[in-house]
Design goal:
Elements lengths: L2 H21 L8 H19 L6 H15 L3 H4 L1 H4 L1 H19 L1 H11 L5 H18 L3 H18 L7 H15 L11 H10 L9 H26 L12 H7 L6 H18 L1 H4 L3 H14 L7 H4 L3 H20 L1 H9 L10 H15 L8 H7 L3 H8 L6 H9 L9 H10 L6 H28 L5
Length: 470
């Protein structure tokens, strides 16, 4: 990000925050503590988005927590995100991604899929859907999935002799990238959205944590529809004029280069598949997802797949601290009176679109997409504002809080421009200028938006039949 933009953006949020903290403009509706919590939230969001002086997200989160302690907010509220089951689902689940990358199992799965691909554009795109779904079942870390998939997708387009800046090259790369993101949002442990949203919901007493069955019931249908529509729509919009030029055994040769499966790969596969089965059958055995993740992590360490010294380096602890702070925001807002104030302020704004479920969802979704142009901190600031008011929205308009889960998922994956989506930036960094064309990325982002709106046309009557609108 341009240095001038960084300092202008951060300075504006800093000055706005200081004004709120000193002038207390929202009193008496919001008491002085609530005003000062908003001040620190704005300053912290400025750090999270713009990273002035290279300050990390975890460091910004630590500043936020320290400030709240000084203000007298209860430590149990400030650090509630670190004690929730969501964070203890997230930590071992991130290590699942680590072992997928470390053992080479992720690469093997991807090349195994490519080995069976039909050598046509539809055939290759379909295989990327399968690869994305399988990797999403094995790890919630989209970062890991993108890091695994990107070099393999690059090798794929090179083997297919797809020229740089061509529509065919962009089509294959963008589809592979999108399938690392979208399908996994259909279940709780398929992306980091699951633990984060569950943690935020848990911080609101009227909501509580989200379980796997509830998430699956509302999110799977739209995630599946969007995945299919994005692949089809991307093919229509970026359809290449020429056929693929590739030898029949090209991918088979790449797979053979991996050699036989190692001991660590076999152990990792058995443990992660077992964990997936426990996630899928949680309604039968009632074992919490966090317990399943922790046992799987224990086995990976005991069996030597994860070395003791790798616990310090295997995952991004900076990101983990950021998520812990983010998942505490709902509880902090409740304690400081910010949630009640936000409800009084924001809930009436939904009145013009509350006439029917169709109007509510189809009008709200574009607004969430627009928010992603300015909220690039993984949508966490917007989630922190919206989640605490969901009980009041339900009480006034009859929109069940579960309905918001797929809407949040859809908005988080918005990708009109690469700066909006951190996973696009990760992929572009790995592709080193040899990837998709920016204009193709924007067109693909439009396809994603249209696909999302079309998927909602099917999801809305399904949610109505579930009784999620009253």
């Amino acid at each position: 990000m341009n240095k001038k933009v960084v300092w202008i953006g951060f300075s504006l949020l800093l000055l706005l925050g200081l004004y709120i903290g000193i002038a207390l403009p929202f009193t008496p509706a919001l008491d002085p503590l609530g005003n000062r919590v908003l001040m620190m939230l704005l300053i912290t969001v400025g750090i999270w988005i713009f990273k002035p002086l290279g300050i990390s997200q975890a460091t910004g989160g630590c500043l936020f927590a320290a400030s709240l302690l000084i203000m007298g907010v209860a430590p149990a509220k400030i650090f509630s995100g670190f004690t929730s089951t969501a964070v203890w689902t997230l930590i071992p689940a991130l290590f699942f991604g680590f072992v997928l990358a470390k053992t080479g199992l992720g690469r093997r799965i991807a090349y195994l899929g490519m080995k069976y691909a039909r050598l046509t554009y539809p055939g290759i795109l379909f295989i990327w859907v399968v690869i994305g779904v399988v990797l999403s079942l094995l790890t919630p870390s989209i970062t890991v999935r993108v890091v695994i998939i990107t070099p393999i997708a690059m090798n794929c387009v090179d083997l297919c002799h797809l020229e740089e800046k061509s529509r065919g090259r962009s089509l294959v790369l963008l589809t592979a990238w999108a399938m690392a993101l979208i399908p996994g949002t259909g279940w709780l442990t398929g992306s980091l959205n699951g633990p984060i949203l569950s943690g935020l919901y848990a911080g609101v007493p009227e909501l509580g944590p989200i379980d796997s069955a509830a998430w699956l019931s509302v999110a799977m249908l739209p995630a599946a529809l969007i995945s299919v529509l994005v692949v089809v729509g991307g093919y229509i919009v970026l359809r290449p004029a020429d056929r693929l030029n590739i030898q029949k055994d090209a991918f088979l040769l790449e797979y053979k280069k991996l050699g036989p499966m190692s001991r660590d790969e076999k152990i990792t596969m058995l443990i992660l598949v077992g964990a997936c089965l426990f996630f899928a059958t949680s309604s039968l055995h009632k074992i919490p997802d966090a317990a399943v993740c922790l046992v799987a992590f224990f086995l990976l360490v005991v069996l030597g797949v994860i070395r003791p010294q790798e616990i310090n380096t295997g995952i991004n602890w900076d990101l983990m601290i950021f998520y812990g702070v983010a998942m505490s925001l709902s509880a902090v807002f409740q304690a400081a009176g910010v949630s009640a104030w936000l409800s009084d302020l924001l809930v009436p704004l939904f009145a013009p679109i509350s006439g029917s479920p169709w109007l509510f969802i189809l009008a709200l979704m574009p607004i969430l997409f627009l928010l992603r142009f300015i909220d690039i901190a993984l949508f966490v600031p917007s989630l922190a504002v919206l989640v605490p008011i969901l009980p009041q929205v339900f009480q006034v308009y009859g929109v069940h809080p579960l309905v918001w889960i797929p809407l949040f998922n859809i908005a988080i994956n918005a990708c009109f421009m690469s700066y909006q989506n951190v996973f696009a930036l990760i992929a572009e960094s790995n592709m080193q200028g040899r990837g998709w064309v920016p204009s193709h990325f924007t067109r693909f982002g439009v396809v994603y938006f249209v696909s999302s709106m079309l998927a909602l046309l099917v999801a809305i009557p399904y949610w109505i039949s579930m009784g999620l609108f009253s």
